[in-house]
Structure formats: structure tokens, C-alpha cells
Task: inverse folding
């Protein structure tokens, strides 16, 4: 039994303070992240056989329930530490984590001033700062439960603005078309179904060698669809595609949107954080011309999940499209100018957790400058990773990244097998995806606290495991 496993419940408080009890377990989770040999994950069969997953009919009491909780969380993969390169979120910001714990203790619902009090001001402050960064000052903004949902909110507003009767009378989605790059996030197709346009309405637009949407191909696709009697509805540009980290050329796409009279949404769930950096913000040049924008702070800004915002350039759009009267709830009339103080009037949700406090707290600690430095560090780690791949002829780079996605192959070795083995041996979590028909390792440098030598060690682990991997040309057939 390891030291962390042996932490017993006798160390937890006996006076009913849940935060103290949680702190004991949290310390064990954090200690486990730096285990020198990694942490071997349980297989599904092992998890079912060894963990107390089933809920008993007769309660086991608090102490035993907390013990079961401890066992399950200690067996759960962590997304922090030097062995995690798998997701577009990673690492832990101290102040944000403290704020997140306090959010649970406060347990607000962010719909009214009466319940949320100054938290409504905190939320407004964060949203206004993000609007300003996006070049959309004075626009509308709200928190949602993630980037997919921010995209949904924006696509609903776009649909309603483009087809004004939709909110009241419904929407005949047949023949309506939506344009997004072939590299866009899968939520676009899913949301196309949810807004009533149907999944097949999404037209995949071709990309260049770096994965960026080709504006000429976009214009041609729209023209072709119009000739065929279809009704173009909206364009979705992506700032930071999921696999390649590509930034679509918003300015050129905005020209097409304006000429064609279409809604332009920019999915910056992943790459929106480039806006925090004086140079990298140019990757989103033209964003101020877009109609709506998604930005996840739980990805590169390091806020605990979930922390995502949807923004619009025009004021009041979310309120106009989502507000419902609820006389039992929205009781203090703050007037149009102060609708922000009853934020439930501009939300997809009713009961809503407070996602602003953690970001606000971390932003307090870092300031704008600190966030820019954070991005610097993330990009520097990616550049070092590119160098490592380039300098070693056992590996080949898939393309020159503009963001922090480093996609590569170990020459002649199965990408899938390498990633699976690294995971099952508890040595590294790193993902894979398909780039131009080849299965590649996608290593992302999201956690800015990693050191260069930790990154170098990750590559040593990877190459060590690759030696035993099956041969493969990694072509997806
Ligand atoms: C480009 C892009 N958009 C949207 C999303 C969805 O974000 P979320 O996971 O917060 O729903 C992702 C997630 O990786 C993404 O990469």
C-alpha cells in the first residue's frame, strides 16, 4: 500500500466541516500525481470488481460513504501533472481551484440578484472583460456548460436572427445550409440537428495544408448551394481546431459572410485564449466582425471545468432570444440596463452553477500580463516539442503547428498502439487523431507549469514504448 492510499479517515475532521474532509483526500490526489513511476489505470473489469460503485439500498452512513468516495476518487485518472498531454485542458491553477471549492460551499444559483448577490457583478465583470478582448465590447454574453453548448446558444441566436419567426413559430430547417471547415468540432453537426437544420445541413469546407478553412472554397460552396435552390444560413469559423490547432482566416470569411448576408459564428472554444496575448491574438484577426463567439476558459486559461462563454457582438441578443417571464423567480425589476443583475433572463438554463468566480479569482491573481505569460509558456513548450520531433529521425512531424498541437508519428510504428500502451502502463496520457488521412499522435502543451525536462522525459517514455509497438504505416483506410 502506498503512502497516499494509507491516508485514513481518522485524519478527516470529526466536526462536520466538509472542506476539511475534502482537503485530506485532495492532498492525497495531488501527491499521487507526482508518483515517480506513474499511476497504472484500472481496467474496466478491475474497476467493476474492486470499487464500491453500486449504491446500496440501506445507507452505509457518512464515514463509510466518505471512505468509498475516497477509494473511487483515488482510482480516478488525474488530468494534472507531468504525464498528462491528452486533452485541451490540463493542470491545476491554485487560486481557481480554491474559488471552485468555495463555489460548491456557497452553492449559488446564478439566476437572480436575490440569490447570487455580488456574484452577479463578478460574472458581469468577467464577461465584459472577455467581450472587450474579443473586440465585442457592449455585446451580450453568458456562461454555458461548455464549448459545445456555447456553440449551440450562438447557433440558436444566429438561426433566430437569420429567420426571425423561428422563436415564435418554429423553423423549417429543410434546405437550410451551414458552412464549417472539414476540421470543425463535432458539436457543430450535433447542434445543427438541435437547431432544426439537420446534421446534413453542415457543409464541410476544404482546408489548406495547415488545416485552415479555404475562403474561396467557402464562397464556391455557398454559390453552388444557392444555384441548387438551397438556403444558406450561417458560417462557423474555428479558432483553434481540435486536432490541428488551426485558426481559420476570420477576416476573409467575414467578407464572404457580409457579401452573402449570413450569420458568422467563431468557435474559439480552444484558441480563444490567444486573445490574451499581444502577438498571438492576431490569429483571430477580424473577430470583431463576427456575430458571435465561443471561448472556453476551462481549456487554455486553466479554469476548472466547466467555464465557457458565448458572446455576441450586438447587445441584448441572448436576452431577446432566451428570456421567458417567470413571475415566481425574476421578481426584482432591474430594468433593461440592469438585466445583467438577473442573469437568468439571458441564459439557456434556469438553475445554474457559478462558473465565473474561479476565472475571476485566477484573473485577479495573474492579471492580463500573467495570462499573456501563461500563453507564452504554453507556446514555448509546444515549440520545444516540435524541436524534439524534428531533431530525432525516429519521428516525423505532420505539419508546422501555429498553436500548441504537436502532431507527429513514430516512423513505421502504430500510433494507436503507442498511445494505448503509454496509457495502460501508466506512463503517459497522450491522444491521437487523423490528419490528412494519417493517424498521428496529438501532443498538446496546455499545462504551463510543466518544465522542459518533464516534456523531454515524456518523449523518452513515448519512444521507449514505441520500440515495442507493432509496425504500421498509420494510413487510415
Ligand atoms: C474547437 C472546439 N470547439 C468546441 C469544443 C467543445 O468544447 P466542450 O468540450 O467545452 O464542450 C471543443 C472541445 O475540444 C473544441 O476543440
Result:
Amino acid at each position: 500500500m502506498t503512502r497516499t492510499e494509507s491516508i485514513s479517515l481518522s485524519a478527516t475532521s470529526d466536526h462536520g466541516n466538509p472542506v476539511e474532509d475534502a482537503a485530506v483526500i485532495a492532498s492525497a490526489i495531488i501527491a499521487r500525481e507526482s508518483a515517480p513511476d506513474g499511476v497504472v489505470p484500472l481496467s474496466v473489469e478491475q474497476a467493476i470488481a474492486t470499487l464500491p460503485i453500486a449504491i446500496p439500498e440501506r445507507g452505509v452512513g457518512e464515514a463509510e460513504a466518505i471512505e468509498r468516495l475516497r477509494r473511487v476518487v483515488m482510482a480516478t485518472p488525474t488530468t494534472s501533472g507531468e504525464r498528462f498531454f491528452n486533452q485541451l485542458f490540463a493542470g491545476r491553477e491554485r487560486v481557481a481551484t480554491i474559488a471552485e471549492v468555495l463555489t460548491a460551499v456557497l452553492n449559488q444559483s446564478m439566476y437572480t440578484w436575490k440569490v447570487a448577490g455580488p456574484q452577479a457583478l463578478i460574472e458581469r465583470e468577467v464577461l465584459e472583460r472577455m467581450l472587450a478582448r474579443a473586440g465585442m465590447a457592449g455585446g451580450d454574453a453568458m456562461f454555458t456548460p461548455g464549448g459545445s453548448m456555447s456553440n449551440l446558444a450562438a447557433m440558436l441566436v444566429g438561426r433566430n436572427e437569420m429567420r426571425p419567426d423561428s422563436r415564435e413559430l418554429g423553423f423549417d430547417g429543410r434546405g437550410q445550409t451551414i458552412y464549417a471547415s472539414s476540421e470543425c468540432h463535432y458539436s457543430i453537426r450535433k447542434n445543427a440537428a438541435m437547431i432544426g437544420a439537420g446534421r446534413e445541413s453542415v457543409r464541410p469546407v476544404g482546408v489548406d495544408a495547415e488545416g485552415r478553412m479555404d475562403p474561396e472554397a467557402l464562397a464556391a460552396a455557398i454559390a453552388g448551394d444557392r444555384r441548387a435552390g438551397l438556403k444558406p444560413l450561417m458560417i462557423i469559423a474555428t479558432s483553434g481546431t481540435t486536432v490541428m490547432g488551426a485558426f481559420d482566416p476570420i477576416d476573409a470569411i467575414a467578407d464572404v459572410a457580409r457579401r452573402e448576408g449570413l450569420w458568422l459564428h467563431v468557435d474559439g472554444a480552444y484558441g480563444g485564449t490567444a486573445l490574451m496575448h499581444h502577438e498571438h491574438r492576431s490569429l483571430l484577426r477580424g473577430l470583431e466582425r463576427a456575430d458571435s463567439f465561443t471561448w472556453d476558459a476551462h481549456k487554455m486559461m486553466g479554469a476548472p471545468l466547466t467555464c465557457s462563454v458565448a458572446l455576441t457582438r450586438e447587445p441584448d441578443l441572448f436576452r431577446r432570444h432566451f428570456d421567458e417571464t417567470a413571475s415566481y423567480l425574476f421578481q426584482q425589476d432591474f430594468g433593461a440596463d440592469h438585466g445583467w443583475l438577473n442573469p437568468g433572463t439571458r441564459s439557456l438554463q434556469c438553475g445554474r452553477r457559478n462558473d465565473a468566480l474561479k476565472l475571476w479569482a485566477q484573473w485577479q491573481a495573474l492579471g492580463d500580463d500573467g495570462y499573456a505569460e501563461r500563453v507564452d509558456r504554453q507556446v514555448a513548450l509546444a515549440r520545444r516539442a516540435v524541436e524534439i520531433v524534428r531533431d530525432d529521425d525516429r519521428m516525423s512531424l505532420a505539419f508546422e503547428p501555429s498553436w500548441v498541437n504537436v502532431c507527429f508519428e513514430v516512423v513505421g510504428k502504430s500510433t494507436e498502439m503507442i498511445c494505448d500502451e503509454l496509457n495502460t502502463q501508466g506512463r503517459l496520457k497522450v491522444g491521437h487523431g487523423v490528419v490528412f488521412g494519417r493517424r498521428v499522435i496529438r501532443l498538446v502543451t496546455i499545462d504551463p507549469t510543466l518544465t522542459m525536462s518533464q516534456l523531454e522525459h515524456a518523449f523518452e517514455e513515448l519512444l521507449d514504448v514505441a520500440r515495442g509497438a507493432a509496425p504500421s504505416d498509420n494510413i487510415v483506410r
